Amino acid sequence: MPGTIKTEFIPRQEGVVLNRIPTPVASLLDGKALAHKIQAELATRIQTLQSQFGRAPGLAVLMVGDNPASAAYVRGKERACQKVGIASFGQRFPTNTSQSELSQVIAALNQDQQVDGILVQLPLPDHLDANALLYEIDPDKDVDGLHPLNLGRLLRGEPGLHSCTPAGVMRLLQEYQIPLVGKQAVVIGRSILVGKPLALMLLAAGSTVTIAHSQSHDLSAIARTADILIAATGRPGLVSAEMVKPKAVVVDVGISRVEDSTGSRLVGDVDFNAVQSVAQFVTPVPGGVGPMTVAMLLDNTLWSFSQRHKAS
Ligand code: NAD
After folding, report:
1. CATH topology identical between 27-31+164-290 and 55-146
2. Which of 72, 149, 168, 213 could bond to 139 as cystine, CB 3.0-4.6 Å?
């Protein structure tokens, strides 16, 4: 799909010939709109399944402490569950909750037949071992796709619960029919949550994948090789227009809150305004990958529900 063309208006001045310079502007990869569409489809499927199996899919989001950003994410996830008809079994715990208390809660949720998905909202307070808790979640209820078994399944190309943010990026690329086979993809960021699983998914889709990170030399040169450039670093404005190959597809996973004279706002890793004039497609922040992450969480919960009913 071609990018739209914006025509810049240049005011007439004495002695200056009127000129109009066409500036290409990238099309948006609209994650918010796609997430709405996915949620509407999920709601319809859930209605049918609920009457077939006599219960709604269930998701338990566990939150410890009072980190305001985490609280907002958890509220967003619960609102989305309500919209599509997924039952919420969320629990909030005070900051001083012990590891063993949380282990017991996870063990009970693993056994609970009403619960199809369990998610521990990260980050956790420092005294808690997040990894140990993630390992205790039943892999078949691990809707965040972070259990080693699910990461192993992803590595092997087997079906399973896959991390929501990378899955959301892939779904967005698929929706806009972005060709991936044989294309150069560069993922900036190597976290287990985003960068690594996303690189595996792009590889499985036929792209030639480079992972860049904080120790990579000459990030600009690496980024400029990308037909598909994904930024997942949490460094506002890291990706400038000079780092983007003309007509590349740019996906901004980063979300950072910045304060300036205009107040506080959310920004991504990509210098959106500048990159818009170089790229063919770009995701906005907010309204790009964020809503897709939530949509994939709901999708994973429904997948887990369906698998469990298929097996029973
Ligand atoms: P992380 O801190 O675990 O990993 C950041 C990665 O970026 C690291 O691998 C690091 O090597 C790399 N990096 C940091 N600075 C760099 C630099 N200057 N040059 C090149 N690479 C650099 O973070 P994460 O959990 O992967 O999240 C990354 C960003 O994505 C954050 O802003 C986070 O808030 C956001 N995020 C968004 C969603 C969503 O739903 N949109 C979901 C998860 C994470």
Report:
1. yes
2. 149
Identify the CATH number of the domain defined by range 27-31+164-290.
Answer: 3.40.50.720
pTM of this structure: 0.93
Q: For residue range 118-170, list pLDDT tens digits in order.
A: 999 999 999 999 999 999 999 999 999 999 999 999 999 999 999 999 999 99
Output the six-digit token pair for 115.
Answer: 């619960």
Tokens (6 digits) for 2: 């071609």
Q: Where are the domains of the chain?
A: 27-31+164-290, 55-146
Look up residue 7 and give its amino acid. Answer: T
Rounded Cα distance between 163 and 293, Å, is: 9
CA 137/CA 178 separation, integer angstroms:
35
| Ligand 1 lining (C-beta closer than 6 Å) | 165, 188-191, 193-195, 212-214, 219, 232-235, 238, 253-256, 289-290, 293
CB 267 within 8 A of CB 285: yes
Instruction: Give me the helix-helix angle, 164-175 and 31-53, nearest 10°.
Output: 110
Paired tokens of 30: 């609209």
Atom 22 of ligand 1, residue of closest alpha carbon: 214
